[in-house]
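Batch manifest, entry 17 of 40.
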Amino acid sequence: MENGKKRILVVDDDKFVRGGLMEVLTIRGYDVDTAEDGYEALKQVEEGEFDLILLDLILPGISGVETLTRILRSKPLSNVIAMTAYSEQAVVAKAMAEGAKRCFLKPMDLDLLEDALKEVASA
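Output type: structure tokens
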């Protein structure tokens, strides 16, 4: 991590959500990478180190929950915060059971998100 910045991977298939989170988090002092699907996220996690992964649960191809499971299988100490636009309790419960540290419904309150990022990344 250069300059002591926390490195975050934002995984979302919606380019506007991905870009918006990247912009806001960069302004707030984070080093941000993005992935548009689970396969790209898994590749980036294998190739690099992230303090935190912000992961959409509903992704094309490989689901966010399956992506979470694979991330934690290969790097068990990864900090993952799940996010979803759908309040399907079963999906949220599965993500939490698989090891997500938190789960936010979109649109997210950015101040609450940043508090969670700080708490999870420093744990």
